[in-house]
Amino acid sequence: MAHTGDSILILDFGSQYTQLIARRVREIGVYAEILPGNASLKEIKEFDPTAIILSGSPYSVYAEDAPQPPEEVYSMGKPILGICYGIQMLAYKMGGEVEKSAKREFGRAEIEVIDQKSKLFKDVPQHSPVWMSHGDSLKKLPEGFHLTARSANAPICGIENKDQKIYGIQFHPEVVHTDSGKQILSNFVFDIAHARASWNPSDFIEATVAEIKEKVGKKTVICALSGGVDSAVAAVLVHRAVGAQLKCIHIDNGLMRRGESAEVVHTFRDHFGIDLDFRDASELFLTRLAGVTEPETKRKIIGKAFIDVLAEEAQKFSGATFLVQGTIYPDVIESLSFKGPSATIKSHHNVGGLPEIMDLKLIEPLRELFKDEVRNVGRALGIPEHFIDRHPFPGPGLSIRVIGEITKPKLELLRSADAIFIEELRNSGLYHSTWQAFAVVLPVQTVGVMGDERTYENVVALRAVTSVDGMTADWARLPHDFLAKVSNRIANEVRGLSRVVYDISSKPPATIEWE
Ligand code: XMP
Prior knowledge:
By secondary structure, the chain is of the alpha/beta class. The chain is 33% helix and 23% strand.
């Protein structure tokens, strides 16, 4: 584990906000990790947290299968903060009463702080807006606890037992709509749990570099550099630890954006001095994709071709023992969740299969980081900003943005339109207010007129969305003048494209990508 010092353990009972709790705690400078709410006492003790937070949950404490932590958690002597379901669970276990309710309270509410001396509410205004999301509510305090806050719909909204260092709140401090949420979490973490802030990019880098050095020794490590943020940061981190023992491989699958492969090679070879093997495999990918139109089949072909080519390239480093993978924390949480991974709508590919084929051990230096933390580590490592701040780009690349059959001419049309769209977004300062933006070439030809001539050409769609995590998204309200400028440039500069449309679908029901 690449963190030293104090840490907060979050036990997850399935709330949609659990990840946010961890992010907020880390934002105030203390390492936080999530374990499933039904983790064993042994796991919890091994983690040795400075304090524990019990998350919310869609369950009622009365449900037969209501998730709960091991009983001993309450008597470990560690400070505990129960949030939403967390307060109900701990109060219920300690003899309090929870009122079943069919009605859910969801949204903004106001709390009144009753106990002004409560450490949890230090510097919180007496009347303060909060975010609620609960069905059941606390009806009777457990013995040894006193009331610290109330709200109109939840008369028992904050409780504490100072001697046992157990605190509970009915509302969600991790949600931005709770004005004093950050203050409350920081009161718990610093004033109650006395944790020290030691979670920052430079300490993380130092600890991770030491850990990788120790693990790798004199062995060789290989890493597939895609051009995305995660693999770039992972590679530079490992390079800092083991230098020339790291061998990177970049494969041009023929589905990259304009100039992308050249930029990857230049940045990592010339700027970082990383030993980088480049393979132009575009012919192989495009040949295998010829005539294929079905989106999932495209993904499978690309995933398989990627493994084949990588395995072939990796033969050059036949003594390699380790493989770097840019897994990040949300992927880890997803696979650990006690509810199991969520349903797959589109299959995503990584280096799956290669470790087994080549008998490689994995190094995943970003396993503990959220995306914004990966970016901060990347900045601290000196990776150029335009690499760090990029929109997400899917593994199958442009293949899922050429709807229908993929051909070289269509890929070129797409690259040209996409480059114009992104350049204009950057020039007008709109790039960062969109979460992802790209062009899509449609398998439709429409009539146009150029000079005196009738044309019959492909349609290009522009897609730009706002989102927090890609799970849901809304179409970006880009200014009309901006869209007009992009459309004009595409029509004037890209031969073969005369009709441009803008996608105004949100997710759900549409997805972000068209395929
Ligand atoms: P959708 O289209 O499912 O996309 O709303 C959500 C996010 O995932 C990206 N995406 C993929 N990424 N392999 C990837 O690595 C894939 O097959 C894939 N499909 C979609 C998409 O670009 C968006 O950021």
